[in-house]
Design brief:
This protein has 3 domains: about 60 residues; about 180 residues, Growth Hormone, Chain: A, CATH 1.20.1250.20; about 55 residues, no CATH class. The chain has 12 helices and no strands. About 75% of the residues lie in helices and about 0% in strands. α6 packs antiparallel against α12 and α8 crosses α9. The chain is mostly helical.
C-alpha cells in the first residue's frame, strides 16, 4: 500500500489537533470505564457515576474545541446531515442487536445446554456467515434500491429474527435458534457497506475519510454504552427472577449467594455450593428459567430498537436526495 498509493495531504490544514485528540481519548476512556463499572457492579456505584459524569464534561470541552477549529477531527456540521445521522442510527441499532447474540447466547448454550465453547461457536457460526454473505449482497443492492429502503429492510429483518427468538423455549434444541441467527446476522450485514458510503458521502470533498472515521468512532462509543446498560438490565432481571423463584423454597436461604453465579452462567460452581443433591436438582431448572428470562428481555429491547430505528431512518432519509454513488 505504501509503495502503490500516494499520501494525500490537506494544504490548508491547521496541523494535528492535539487538544481535541487528547480530550476525546480521555472522554471515551472515562465513559467506557464508567459504563463498565456500572454494568459490573450496580447502577448507583459512585465510582462509575463519577467517571460517566467526568466523560460528559470532557465531551463538552471536546465539542467546544472542535467548534473553534477550521479543520477539526470531528466535523460537527455532519450532525446536521440526515444521511450521516441515518447511518449512525442504523449502526447503533443493528450492531447492538448483533453483538447481543454473540455476548449472551454463549452463556446460555454453555450453562443451560452444557455445550463446550467449540460447539457453541459452531452453533453461532450461521450468525457470522450470514453477516458476511449479506454484506456483499447489500453492497450490490445499494446500486438498485434507495438507502432508505435498504436501512429499513435490514432493521425489519433483524426484528423478525428477534421475534423468532421469543418463540423459542429454554428447553428447545439448538437447531430451533438457527433461523433467528441467520435473520439477525443477515440483516446486520445488509446495511454495512451503505452505512459507510452515505456517511462518507455526507462530508465535504476531501473529508470523506474523516466522516467514515467519525461513523466508526461513534459506533464503538455507543456500543460500549449500550452494552453496559444491557448488562445492568440483564443482571438485575436474572437476579430478580431467580430470587423470586426460590422464594418460599428450601433454596431461599442460598438465593443471595447463588444469584451472582446464575447471571454469569456459572451453574456448576453455584450448584457445588449447595449441601445436598436434592437442592442441586431443584436449583438447575430455576437457574435455567431465570437466565433465559434475562436473555429474552434483552431480545425484546433489540426488537423494539430495530423497529424504532427503521422508522427513524425512513424519516431521516425520506426527503433526502440520493447520495451520488
Amino acid at each position: 500500500t505504501l509503495s502503490a498509493v500516494g499520501e494525500s495531504r490537506e494544504p490548508a490544514a491547521e496541523g494535528f489537533d492535539y487538544a481535541g485528540a487528547a480530550t476525546l481519548a480521555a472522554g471515551v476512556l472515562a465513559l467506557v470505564l464508567g459504563a463498565g463499572d456500572l454494568g459490573n457492579s450496580s447502577a448507583t456505584d459512585p465510582a462509575g457515576i463519577a467517571l460517566v459524569t467526568a466523560s460528559g464534561g470532557l465531551f463538552v470541552v471536546f465539542w467546544a474545541i472542535e467548534a473553534r477549529r477550521r479543520d477539526p477531527i470531528f466535523d460537527l456540521g455532519l450532525f446536521r446531515a440526515r444521511p450521516f445521522l441515518a447511518g449512525f442510527v442504523a449502526a447503533i441499532v443493528l450492531d447492538s442487536s448483533y453483538w447481543i447474540i454473540f455476548l449472551y447466547f454463549p452463556i446460555y448454550f454453555e450453562a443451560v445446554n452444557g455445550y463446550s465453547a467449540l460447539v457453541t461457536g459452531l452453533i453461532l457460526l450461521p450468525l457470522a456467515a450470514s453477516f458476511f454473505v449479506t454484506e456483499i449482497v447489500g453492497g450490490r443492492l445499494a446500486t438498485r434500491v434507495t438507502s432508505r429502503t435498504l436501512f429499513a429492510s435490514a432493521m425489519v429483518v433483524v426484528a423478525l429474527g428477534g421475534v423468532w427468538l421469543l418463540f423459542v423455549g429454554s428447553g428447545d434444541p439448538w437447531t430451533a435458534f438457527l433461523g433467528a441467527f441467520v435473520l439477525i446476522g443477515g440483516g446486520t450485514g445488509l446495511y454495512q457497506a451503505e452505512s459507510t458510503r452515505i456517511s462518507a458521502g455526507a462530508a465535504k470533498p476531501g473529508h470523506e475519510g474523516s466522516a467514515a472515521g467519525m461513523n466508526f468512532t461513534l459506533r464503538g462509543l455507543s456500543f460500549s454504552v449500550f452494552f453496559a446498560l444491557f448488562e445492568v438490565l440483564f443482571s438485575q432481571t436474572v437476579t430478580t427472577g431467580f430470587l423470586g423463584r426460590v422464594s418460599g423454597t428450601p433454596l431461599a436461604a442460598y438465593g443471595p449467594t447463588l444469584a451472582p453465579y446464575v447471571t454469569t452462567g456459572s451453574f456448576s460452581y453455584a450448584a457445588s455450593l449447595l449441601p445436598s443433591d436434592v437442592l442441586r436438582a431443584a436449583f438447575y431448572p430455576i437457574a435455567n428459567a431465570s437466565l433465559f428470562q434475562g436473555i429474552q428481555l434483552i431480545v425484546v429491547f433489540a426488537i423494539v430498537g430495530s423497529l424504532v430505528g427503521a422508522a427513524l431512518c425512513a424519516w431521516l432519509l425520506g426527503r433526502v436526495p440520493t447520495v451520488p454513488r
